[in-house]
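Note to self: the last two entries modelled the partners one at a time, which told us nothing about the interface. This time every component goes in together.
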Amino acid sequence: MDTNIANSNLKSEDYFINMGPQHPATHGVLRLLLTIDGEIIKKVEPDLGYIHRSIEKMCERDSYQQIVHLTDRMDYLSSHINNEAVCLTVENALEIEVPERVKVIRTIIGELTRLASHQLWWGVMGMDVGALTTYFYGFRDRELINDIFEETCGARLTMNYNIPGGLMFDIHPNFVKRTKDFIAHFKTKLPEYDRLLTGNVIFQKRMKGVGILTKEDAISFGATGPVGRGSGFSCDVRKHHPYSALDKVTFKETLRTEGDSLARYEVRIQEMWESMSIIEQLIDNIPEGDFKVATNAVIKLPKGEFYQKVETARGELGVYVVSTGTKNPYRLKFRSPGFSNLSLLNHIAVGGKIGDLVASMATLDIVVPDIDR
Amino acid sequence: MNITLSITKNIHNWLFSIMPEGIASIAEMVLIAVVYLAIFAVAGLYLVLLERKVAAWFQLRIGPNRVGYWGLLQTMADALKLVSKELTGTVKADKFLYNLAPYFVIVTALMALAVFPFTQEFQAFDINIGVLFLLAISSIGVIGILLGGWSSNNKFALIGAMRSGVQTISYELSVGLSILTMVLISGSLQLSEIVEVQKNGWLIVQGHIPAVIAFMIFMIAGTAETNRAPFDLVEAESELGAGFHTEYSGMKFAYFFLAEFINMFIIAAIGTTLFFGGWLSPFGITESIPWLGVFWFVGKTLILVFLMMWFRWTFPRLRIDQLLTLEWKYLLPLNLLNIVLMALIVWLNLTIQF
Amino acid sequence: MDLTKDYKTEFMTNEGLQNLISNWIPDLEFTEEGSQFLNITVKPDQLYQLMSQLKTNNEANFDYLFCLSGVDWGKELGVVYHLESTTHRHTIVVKVKTEDRENPTFDTVSDIWFTADFHEREVFDFFGIIFNNHPNLKRLFLTEDWDGFPLRKDYVDEINMVIK
Amino acid sequence: MSYFGNIYRGIKTLLTGMSVTGKYFLTSRKGAITQQYPDNRDTLKMFDRFRGEVVMPHDEVNEHRCTGCQKCEIACPNGSIEIIWDRQVDPETGKKKKMIDQHIYHLGMCTMCGLCIEACPTDAIKWAQNFENSVYDRSYLTKVLNKPGSKVKAGIED
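The predicted structure of the combined assembly is written out below.
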């Protein structure tokens, strides 16, 4: 059929569609150039840069304390973990040992961040496949985490709670109680997520076998986080290169072998359970001690190159610092998970329908500022 | 022209007494049209409000509560806003078809309303092929959507329109066949007579198993026919932006929007008439007060409307191929089986009669 | 499928890796100074050969390119590749440099690791480094008509850049 | 028979989903999570640490704690803080001393990172919880934190 049309003398053109930069499913200002044949996707070409702020160039001008707050604006849903990545880089380079208390608090808030990010993703995921109510249920639970952040860190999204050497201030007295309350609340709500969306026959049909990514391709594309793990690529930085207090807790790295959208979806749902378990292991025994160690007012990293990776809600965030021994980094590169994950969109979407593209893009969980750093 | 308009005998007689026959019947038709238009424009707006309130309650929200007491004037304000908005369009749009499309949709939606018996006397248009008329009218609406999507010269709109064509044509079969199942048991195409038949028990009770199956198929197909979630591929917000009405603004958009809600009301009204006894009260408890029929009719219809809203705010959207799979592989074969079953039941006199 | 198999370690120390890799190509520079990983500096014309061997060799098996960054070292422009093996869990850094600032050119590795496709476009966008045989080398973030390469050290934009 | 089994299982999952939303529908009266802003402005209380804007507290005799050391200005990543200072003769000691003329804060450029408040050695500036910062003109967002005629509290040295 196809070849007949191709061989005929009829003049035919590809049908281009501009999805975005303002489009409900592209979660921000991502623009996708689609070539389609009826409903079938023939090619997806992302066009980036609509909100590029050149954070890497700005970092070359800022001091190490100031860099931290810029990372809030990259992947704003894992802002705490991004902050942590920069702080860990600086602390490792200076060979500062931060107090146990700091490590534990960082880990707890990091996991709360992951939970909040996955809750938002779940809500938006449902919306992308057309179930609008999930959005509000996801946000209801995320609001509680945001309240915890606001009370302790002073901000709900761009928290900037980490500084090189520790934390900006100690946790709020209510922190432990609020966190426990939240865990107790969310344990009753997470099964509801499954009942509402996961089990739904329409949802299952929409997700199963859609956007398949094999393990080899996942590794080759550098797909990390739930995207990689949904394909069976064991890429959890928390497991392989534990940082902060993550070496003291036991948790399971969720791995699935199917590599389809449903696998990526279920990895995230499972990760929420694991994150809650990590928080539960730590919340009752936050060690006493200082919340920061004194650093010089002007931090100068020794000459050399430093690399630190952490696991954000989206995957592996790498911070690569080239230092010449001055108070500014000579070159600072963020290896952001969203960037690599987006690059495989064309690979998994070709041959599917427009609805499949939206569904698999939602399971990639793209945050555009993370890509347009 | 000898159509019986039986809405109120008094006005009919009065009009015919003061005017010659031809003018009087035209005047009566215009009068009734204006009354229907006014009632259903307002009713449509309140359906929108109901949808928004119901959605809010499903979603842990409060819903519109600023304009008027309890937000009751919210959709009125929206309509005023839409009327006062500029009508925009694309440069290369096919202007004639582009402007025509919304009227197709809204006119067919309003026309279908004419044949419903809201209560014994309250029916504009009691034709003996009422059910057939409904099916015919409801299939014209899709032409408006196709025209709108095609003439907008917008790629998203075109995809939406093509989806709409595929979807509506497929699901009309199921709507038609499930209605046919009920016609088998009622033995008439005239809506007022279908209601009369149900004085011995609503058809969903009379026809028991096949009627329940027919009702389920009718609700699914009816939801699809009105392009509502989970079958809202035509609009598919997260895929196509706004689908076929992407390029419409102001009042033309409002026509599409209103038509969607009136269509939803029509599907629910057909369901009420065919399955739940129309304006008949349960067990005849208010038979002595005829005008309460309107209350029962609207009440039953709203319950079905609520069911469709419940679907919408719970389920994810189907994909286009799954939509067709559902119709051609599940609903249609089941429907055909169901007709045979119903025919057997009617033939062997296994219906339940009170 | 046994997922725990991934954890089996045939981890190679930096010396082991150095011994292994130095057999393939002569005159590679190895250093561990000022970095937590083993650094290899390779000449541009040997880059592709080294990279494909790093991926395909069973003992090395660096199948995961986790970071690809362009760096402007002042006089030289270069690219730094961070590689990890998902089976053996060892890490290596490969650097390639050129002094040609007008027309810096390296071979692409996007056919070895698919992720390099986007990363190399990013490097091209910000450093102006051209990758031979890249399937789709054009600006990724910036507009097609952008003048200059912003992350180079000699880039000046007096209007938009705030210098402290 | 798996054909009918599929239909049965499918409908069951759909009804499960509807039961979840249905439950919330029935309890919607007390379950609403909407914040009725601005109706609840009287009862709305922000958390103590909430970062709304930077302010400089003054005591009742119009004295603040800012010595004009400019550490906040250096710490700020965006240049949101500008300090205009002067060396003036301290009337008490008779020595020349660095005094602020204006502590200018550009709220429109501030990213609420909190580094200035961390850097301040004399706790002269702190966070206020006011979050209603929208104004009709951008220039209103540039604020002078020290009040007119105010001076530094005696005995505060950096």
